[in-house]
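Summary for the steering committee. The consortium agreed at its last meeting that each partner would contribute one worked example illustrating the joint modelling workflow. Our contribution is presented below. We chose a case with several input lines so that the handling of multiple components could be demonstrated. No manual editing was applied between input and output; the record is shown as generated.
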Amino acid sequence: MRPFSYARPADARSAVAMLGDGAVYLGGGTNLVDLMRLGVVEPGALVDVSRLADDVIEETPGGGLLVGAGVRNGDLAAHPLVRRRYPVLAEALLSGASGQLRNMATVGGNLLQRTRCSYFQDVTKPCNKREPGSGCPARTGDHRNLAILGHSESCVATHPSDMAVALVALGAQVRVEGPGGARAVPMPGLHRLPGDDPSRDTVLEPGDLITAVELPALPLAARSRYRKARDRASFSFAVLSVAAALEVDGGVVRDCRIALGAVAHVPWRAEAAEAALRGAPATEAAFARAADAELAAARPLPRNGFKVPLARNLLLRVLADLAEMP
Amino acid sequence: MTTTDVKYVGSALDRVDGVEKVTGAARFAFEYRPRDLTYAAPVQATIARGEIKGMDAGAALKVPGVIAVIWHGNAPRLAPSDAAELSVLQSPRVAYRGQYVAVVVAETLEAAQEAAALLRPEYAEEGHDVELRADHPRLYRPEHVNPRFPADDERGDPDAALASSPVVVDAAYTTPAEHNNPMEPHAAVAEWDAGGLTVYDSTQQPSGLRGQLAPLFGMPPEQVRVIAPYVGGGFGAKGRAHPYVVLAALAAKQVGRPVKLAVTRREMFAVTGYRTPTIQRVRLGAEADGRLSAIVHDVWEQSSTLAEFAEQTAVATRMMYAAPHRRTTHRLVRLDVPTPSWMRAPGETPGMFALESAMDELAVACGLDPIELRARNEPATDPDAGLPFSSRNLLACLREGARRFGWADRDPRPGVRRRGGLLYGTGVASSTYPAYRAPAQATARAEPDGSYTVRIAAADIGTGAKTVLTQIAADALRAPVALVRVEIGDSALPQAPVAGGSMGTASWGTAVVRACEALTRELEESGGRVPPGGAEASAATAQEVKEQEKYARHAFGAQFAEVAVDAATGETRVTRLLGVFAAGRILNPKTARSQFVGGMTMGLSMALMEESVMDARFGDYLNHDLAQYHIAAHADVPDVRAYWVEEDDPHLNPMGSKGIGEIGIVGTAAAIANAVHHATGVRVRDLPIRLDRLVR
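What follows is the complete predicted structure of the assembly.
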């Protein structure tokens, strides 16, 4: 590991002021420290924001929930208001990582974790995300776990977070403190598709610090769930995941929110499926049409074609479960 | 002399070193800190084949704390050796990606690692070939397969028998490369002094490692000492010397100070061996009633260009079932890949996956219960050697397992048991593993204070070997277990074979019993009094092992699995796994159960998860960490149970025991694959059975 300096600022403003050349923010360190050990990132300075006074979870005047960026994943999952109002978020958090990691990982860091694509994580191999212009061996190599939607010639990586998939489904806002002041970034919208510059995962600019996530008031989210398909029951990244909320009235879908995980460079909001469902009967046939509407855009790679039927089946299952919920 | 009538063998004695381990007092290889210690960071090749043309060490040497950068251009010379894999830094040739090409030694680990990252080897890269194929032009028949079985074997006329069989199963199976991932990765601390070389290593055989290291450094074995009192798991990966330990010793020689070298888990995927991938074709010819007329099992597997490791994949097929016509073959191709090695029941594990899957396919084809099919093909004597079995209780295991598992009312139809979104199925498979015994030596000493010390260079890799040897010694001495101290894990102790091949306890235990018997006799002759200086007796079992009567000695077992397959996602989870084993006398039920349950867990892991993914363009295994290389963890093994049938087999060793370290894994993957077929109707012949094989 390369030598680096370490600082622990007192507040967000001074953290942003400290972020000079070669410095990065350190949250729970559950991903960044790994990447430093692997030589994937070699920051000259760590600005530790894990203990800023932003670990609060509080109700907003509009009936939503404000979650500080330093809140630990485990604490967020266990919060009574989260469990009651946004079960999809609690389930997503609990399906991610292990208990030990959830107790370290922060909400801000979780959103910014990097892809687990094997080529990205191995500095002896090319990767456009890690080293722009070096190529994407995953496209023609081992991409079993990689993207089927929104990928480009440059990159087929997926975003690894479970939490972010739920936040995209819920339409959360990310609060950011930057060199130019504070602003809000909506989700989806924080993460970006790879295009020809996969080195950038998000729309954040240098120095930007996530300070909080705001969950909107969303009554339909009380009927929501997260379902993750994975290669083992113990901690592992999603092969595919679905976050969904459904409001059914008189056998008709009044409203819905759907996002897919592990299918793209971003947590994928399934807008085509949502559009197909709103106003449709809450039947398996309608759910299937919605899934097909979304997956029409899928461009599976030679070795991950199974993700298309997997996404379809999983989405059908989640929607059917939600429709049957009392 | 205190004597007791209590028998310790067979009792569930707690581990004698349990407290040391759970309190952290037990020191493992990496935890030794000789004076003037330095730290090594190896550099691994980033090409799969070619030559090193130069080594720009300028930037690395400027890192504060760096003591030396060693590569083939400046490394101390090792003695010429056939062990090409161990001749580290002796040549510019690169034989596989990940091979060690240099090592940095520094005052701190951080400095060594930083410098290693700055080293710039210059390569002349050559085209490489890392893909195992059944039609590879360079396939050949090895002289022997591990350890010394003939590669091919044929009885009768299997082709004619297949052609005239009313029922034929002809199926190809594949198993991927798999890597041992013991809790404690490999590590060594090497130190030279006037007396020679001392190595603290995480090894399964202190004596054997000494024997491998000494000639490389041109020394007699007495000048090398290997110390390994505690080892955090092995499974075969630590069964023989790997390049890192030579690298540590060579670096320590070069810098004139002790060197510590820990192999990272990433590095392990190239330099500490792995289970070869296999391609297998099994053909079974049978009468309509299931009686086998022909068994043909052909195997293709790989080794590196540096060393021939030919796994004995089809060898168990030679003795498992009665069939008048039989052929088994092994073909090997030497590729530009890391050298494969031992991994828990090498050969038997992938081989029995194929055979026991094929037997299940035959049971379906004949409309027979799979247990009944096996009963109809039970041989009277070993079909391979023609010898009588010392004991063979496979059918007892199958029937006892069926009773405990609740097999009787099994509906054989595939794909019809659905509860909620889950498809349920059950499967069974047989296991076998040879009961080997190798020569060993031991000493037993009566101390003046009334206690006893037994010494043998055995290794306890987490199995409870030290505990069981204590029980064996106490019984042989007729002494209370509290008065018996067993010293192991040091090549300075009497020579002992590897903790591997499920033969450790049988081999060491024989020597311990003989040494204790000799000591008891000696004490009896001197009137039962321990002389002031103590009394000591020793034993060597080479003659006894050589002269043992001719029997086919094997342990047997049966695994039963229940799986739940998610109909939407294809996710397969093992809801119940049950094994019954016939492995001679069980010396300690507590440590034995751990071994069986551990073996079955590893088999479950093999069935559903483990796969080392090779990228042919780069030539290395891509998923080289535990986030990507999945092994079963707690949530994956909710209900794993092990039982045994007692066997009284007088033809084995003084304890009446068979090895138990490996048989637990052998049939597990097949039992699970058979259960997946029963659940879904889909026959998965390629491991691992991940959701992509089942999602539709």
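The interface with chain B takes residues 1-3, 38-39, 116, 118-119, 121-122, 124-125, 137, 141-142, 144, 229-237, 239-240, 306, 309-310, 313-314, 316-317 of chain A (CB under 8 Å). The radius of gyration of chain A is 19 Å.
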